[in-house]
């Protein structure tokens, strides 16, 4: 982690965002400490991606402010660990990772890359951390979906930004690879704040220390994972499915399977539910 940015809190202070007059986020206030692992869950259309895009600087709030250590958050402070599949197929895994040093904007990479140092060592170390040391010279086109995802994480982390955001990093992976993605993120993070949107609530509860529940653009709860109950999740997903105009209702169906400790201390996954 960059020394100069260590120890700074990411703060959302009364943040609202509207699209075409419709509120996507309403009066969101939260504080995130360095090194925290936070999962954002909620029904489709809740505002989860909007929250990440605001934190990354890709969107500006209509009201409120987002700061890191008291200063407006900037693109240099934040990296997107995963936002869909954006590797360059014809380039090697290592070249894709090293291209991350010039930022998240893919079209700028071609112009800026010649200007950054060519030392491959940080890229090789990150590929090793995500379990792909042997694939450094493999072209991205030859990698599996899970391997591509891991290369994308390594590419994001090579920038050494103090805030790491991931939007549905388990999307498009088979169930056995999803938990592995969280392991990979854990393995490569070193004191950075991680805020990730996860559709799988069970995975969020099992693997993240703090859970933010968003519905209809509002924070419905913000609790340690151990404090999140089935009732809170039922309310969260019911809220997202019952907007008056029905705009979000069809897409508001979401699945959650929450791992809860039983009386003998063992974890058991509750029934998976669908919300309409
Ligand atoms: N660029 C945009 N222009 C217009 N409306 C938008 C835009 N981005 C988001 N919205 C709207 O804002 C609301 C929140 O969208 P957002 O993508 O943040 O939700 P989400 O919780 O990430 O949903 P999902 O789980 O389906 O990805 C939705 O009603 C969406 O249609």
Q: Top keywords for this entry?
A:
single chain; 276 residues; alpha/beta; Rossmann fold; 6-stranded mixed β-sheet; 4-stranded antiparallel β-sheet; 8 helices; disordered N terminus; disordered C terminus; binds adenosine-5'-triphosphate
Q: In words, what does this structure look like?
A:
- With 276 residues, this protein is α/β, with parallel strands linked by helices.
- The chain has a single domain (3-274), classed as 3-Layer(aba) Sandwich (Rossmann fold), CATH 3.40.50.300.
- It is 28% helix and 26% strand.
- The chain contains eight helices and 14 strands.
- The chain has helices spanning 48-56, 93-99, 106-112, 121-129, 145-157, 175-188, 201-207, 230-240, and strands at 10-19, 22-32, 37-41, 63-68, 71-72, 78-82, 163-167, 193-197, 210-215, 218-224, 255-256, 259-261, 267-269, 273-274.
- It has a six-stranded mixed sheet with strand order 6-7-8-3-9-10, with helices on both faces. Strands 2-1-4-5 form a four-stranded antiparallel sheet, with helices on one face.
- A hairpin with a 5-residue loop joins β12 (259-261) and β13 (267-269).
- α2 (93-99) packs across α4, α2 packs parallel to α5 and α4 (121-129) crosses α5 (145-157).
- The longest helix is centred in the middle third of the chain and has 14 residues, at 175-188.
- The N and C termini lie far apart (42 Å).
- Mean pLDDT is 80; it is low at 1-6 and 242-276.
- Bound molecules: adenosine-5'-triphosphate.
- The site of adenosine-5'-triphosphate (ATP) has 12 residues, from α1.
- It comes from Haloarcula salina.
- GO terms for molecular function: ATP binding; ATP hydrolysis activity; transmembrane transporter activity.
- Residues 261-270 have a biased composition (Basic and acidic residues).
- Residues 10-241 form the ABC transporter domain.
- This is ATP-binding cassette domain-containing protein.
């Amino acid at each position: 982690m960059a020394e100069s940015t260590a120890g700074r809190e990411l703060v959302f202070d009364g943040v609202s965002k509207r699209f075409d007059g419709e509120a996507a986020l309403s009066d969101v206030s939260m504080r995130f400490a360095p090194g925290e692992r936070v999962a954002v869950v909620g029904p489709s259309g809740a505002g989860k991606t909007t929250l990440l895009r605001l934190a990354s600087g890709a969107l500006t709030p209509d009201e409120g402010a987002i700061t890191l250590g008291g200063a407006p958050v900037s693109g240099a402070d934040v990296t997107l660990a995963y936002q869909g599949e954006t590797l360059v197929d014809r380039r090697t895994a290592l070249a894709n990772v090293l291209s991350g040093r010039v930022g998240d904007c893919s079209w700028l990479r071609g112009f800026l890359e010649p200007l950054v140092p060519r030392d491959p060592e940080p890229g090789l170390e990150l590929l090793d951390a995500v379990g792909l040391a042997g694939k450094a010279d493999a072209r991205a086109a030859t990698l599996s979906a899970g391997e591509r995802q891991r290369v994308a994480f390594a590419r994001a982390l090579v920038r050494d930004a103090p805030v790491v955001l991931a939007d549905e990093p388990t999307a498009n992976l088979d169930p056995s690879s999803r938990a592995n993605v969280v392991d990979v993120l854990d393995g490569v993070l070193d004191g950075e704040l991680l805020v990730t949107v996860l559709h799988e609530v069970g995975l969020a509860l099992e693997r993240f220390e703090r859970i933010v529940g968003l519905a209809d653009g509002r924070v419905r709860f913000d609790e340690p994972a151990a404090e999140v109950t089935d009732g809170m999740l039922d309310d969260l997903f019911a809220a997202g499915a019952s907007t008056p105009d029905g705009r979000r209702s069809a897409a508001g169906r979401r699945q959650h399977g929450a791992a809860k400790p039983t009386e003998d201390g063992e974890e058991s996954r509750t029934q998976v539910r669908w919300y309409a």
